[in-house]
Design a protein that fits this description.
Flavocytochrome C3, Chain A, domain 1, single chain, 3 domains, five-stranded parallel beta sheet, Methane Monooxygenase Hydroxylase, Chain G, domain 1, FAD/NAD(P)-binding domain
Length: 548
């Protein structure tokens, strides 16, 4: 039972993973492994919605232009076009699975009441965001989980944390490098299981826990990027980490996101002046004010806080009235009320926090990584859609579209993958001379130190000196962690710490390579952006001389 074989292995149970698994199921057996329960993912925490052109007033062309503008010159225009134009088809498929989006009638509109109620978020010039109240991610995730559980060809493995990918190159086999599966720790039994497969899909989500403050759930430790990096896949544009401008600033409710959709419905950003009066400030930073792209809004808030010595700023939507707020944002209203904040009567205290990774495992539009049989999609992948800054609500769209493309490409390539894959015995996991460790303090200390210096030195605003300090620290910590990893038996904590340290160093190296300010990467030592520089991706790839 230490080895399990499936036609397809999917690592991750968010939107990207489950959507791919469902499309692969007609073609063979699918294993979905996830480090906690199926529902726990970044997808489940998404509030805003899915950007998609379904209104006659809107157009693919305008959605494409909005995406390119937000991406600050680094978007792959072909990827943008194909993903945007595929939107209606994948949304319809999601609806056939049972997903329900809010209609105008549910929002109290009498005209066209059966039409979807479309939201507007930062960087969008039209209303095009489908939503399910303010718990869109939860609605989508539960729909996909129910569909996956009903599919006889899908086997799910909860509380299994992926340790490393198995590839022919890493095993020392000759010939073309091929993905063969993955090793995963069964947390309940504390045993390592070998999953073998013809094709492996990495959809392990984001890496927000690399930073001290994040909107992400605890599972977001960058495992997908770290594993693919160790398997020699190229990693692109990791310097572009998006900080959501408005995370609730409250001791009772940490890491709770206040959706950008509030600003889309007219909420205003304000701060207290020296006279104790709330005043607006976004007019100083961008003509679109509160609906400027996220990188600009986050930097504006960061600058106001640092300039005036503030702990937070405030998001004020009181002028919309309590009835509207409760109907449009019922979950956010109740969560804030539970934390002692009545959005109808008082402004909401907010701060920026790490939210979304715009870079990741470099892939084509089919999610193909360049290693035969290895695919990646969702937040841990980089198709070129987001460029230097993600346009709000494009990420769920991307995951749906690339899941479709990836499954189709895998099915078409399956015979060729199987017929050309090198054969041999895949070794079971061995701990060698490793022993149990009770030095949990080492893990917690390194975890805390990484997240603190990443926030301080590689955050919203960077400098060359800060990046150099971060690089010096991560080099030493990586050495310490690698020694610890090989000396002691694996545990969930050491697996996640190892991944966080790897991703932190990749972000630092990427940021040091980019000698300009662009989009989400703002280095005050460089122009923003440098017109003399060629618009190109930052690529980080592990050398095969250091196969470990």
């Amino acid at each position: 039972m230490n080895t399990l074989h499936f036609d397809f292995l999917v690592i991750g149970s968010g939107l990207g993973g489950l959507a791919t698994a469902l499309r692969l199921a007609p073609h063979g057996s699918v294993a979905v492994i996830t480090k906690k329960n199926l529902e726990e993912s970044n997808t489940a925490h998404a509030q805003g919605g899915v950007a998609c052109v379904i209104d006659a007033k809107d157009s693919f062309k305008q959605h494409i232009q909005d995406t390119l503008a937000a991406g600050a010159g680094l978007c792959n225009e072909d990827a943008v076009t194909k993903i945007v134009e595929s939107g209606p088809e994948v949304i319809n498929h999601l609806i056939t699975l049972g997903a329900k989006f809010t209609t105008r009638g549910e929002m109290g509109h009498t005209s066209h009441k059966d039409d979807f109620d479309l939201g507007k978020e930062g960087g969008h010039t039209e209303r095009r965001v489908l939503h399910a109240g303010d718990i869109t991610g939860e609605e989508i995730e539960s729909t996909l989980v129910n569909a996956a559980m009903a599919e006889k060809n899908i086997s799910t493995f909860e509380n299994h944390i992926a340790i490393d990918l198995i590839t022919s190159s890493r095993l020392g086999w000759l010939g073309e490098d091929c993905a063969l599966g993955a090793y995963a720790l069964d947390i309940a039994s504390n045993k390592v299981v070998t999953f073998t497969s013809h094709a492996t899909v990495v959809a392990a989500g984001g890496a927000g826990k690399v930073y001290l403050y994040s909107s992400n759930p605890d599972v977001s430790c960058g495992g997908g990027v770290a594993m693919c990096y160790r398997a020699f896949a190229p990693i692109a544009n990791m310097e572009f980490y998006q900080f959501h401008p408005t995370i609730l600033f409250n001791q009772k409710l940490r890491s709770f996101l206040i959706s950008e959709a509030l600003r889309g419905e007219g909420a205003l950003l304000k701060r207290y002046n020296s006279s104790g009066k709330l005043i607006e400030f976004m007019h100083k930073y961008h003509p679109q004010r509160e609906l400027a792209p996220r990188d600009i809004v986050a930097r504006a808030i960061d600058n106001e806080m640092k300039t005036y010595g503030l702990e937070c700023v405030f998001l004020d939507i009181r002028h919309k009235g309590g009835d509207f707020i409760k109907k449009r944002f019922p979950n956010i209203f109740e969560k804030c009320l539970g934390a002692g904040i009545n959005m109808a009567d008082e402004p909401v205290p907010v701060v920026p926090a790490a939210h979304y990774c715009c870079g990741g495992i470099k892939t084509d539009l089919n999610g193909f990584t360049g290693i035969k049989g290895l695919y990646a999609l969702g937040e841990n992948a980089c198709t070129g859609l987001h460029g230097a800054n993600r346009l709000a609500s494009n990420s769920l769209l991307e995951a749906l579209v690339v899941a479709k493309f990836a499954a189709e490409n895998i099915a078409e390539s399956l015979h060729e993958i199987i017929s050309t894959k090198p054969s041999g015995n895949i070794p079971l996991w061995t701990s060698g001379n490793a022993t149990d460790s009770d030095e949990i303090v080492v893990i917690s200390h390194n975890w805390d130190e990484i997240r603190h210096f990443m926030w301080d030195y590689v955050g919203i605003v960077r400098t060359n000196k800060r990046l150099e300090r971060a690089k010096a620290r991560i080099k030493n910590i990586r050495k310490e962690i690698e020694k610890y990893y090989w000396d002691f038996i694996v545990s969930p904590d050491i697996i996640e710490l190892r991944n966080i340290a790897s991703v932190a160093e990749i972000i630092i190296d990427s940021a040091m390579q980019r000698k300009e300010s662009r989009g989400l990467h703002f280095n005050s030592d460089y122009p923003s952006p440098d017109p003399t520089m060629e618009n190109k991706d930052t690529i980080i790839q592990k050398s095969r001389k250091h196969n470990a």
